[in-house]
Amino acid sequence: MNENTILDQLVYDPADGKLTYRDIRYVIIRPETIVGFQKAIEQHSRKSARDALFQGGYQGGYLSAQKFKEMQNLSDTQTINFMMTMGAEIGWGHFELIEYDFESHNLQIRVNHSAFAEAYGDATEGVCHLINGVLSGLATVLFRRNCKGSETRCLAKGDTHCLFHISEK
Ligand SMILES: [Zn+2]
What we know:
The protein is an alpha+beta fold. It has helices at about 5-10, 30-40, 45-70, 75-90, 115-120, 130-145, and strands spanning about 10-15, 20, 25, 95-100, 105-110, 145-155, 160-169. A hairpin with a 4-residue loop joins strand 4 (about 95-100) and strand 5. The site of zinc ion has 10 residues, from loops.
């Protein structure tokens, strides 16, 4: 018993080399791989690295939030909790809701032990653009408006945790 609903429901197809969770394919990837892409792009442009990871995360977060919300008929708060639990269960870190305000379209989430910040090492600015993208994709589903986020605290720059503020674009 590992108390991890994702691992409990993960289906392995050895013939095709596939892992699926509720019929959606997933891959297990070391955070160093993601950080490797990030640092390679950063050699050319920090903004391009940030944008590329953000967009990738945004796409995944948007699709997941929409699909799992619909599939399980979840309320907005349940969707946030589901996504935060999933984030932990896939090993990205421990997510905690700080603020959710539907009226003002604000979402604030704190992440402890970000896998990406730990893999990155020391930095002078936030490095968890993938998480920022996922949370912005989630917020876009909740608020039905395009959202963007900023990471105001990050473990990689010496803060005790990462903090994301998501709002309408
Ligand atoms: Zn971070």
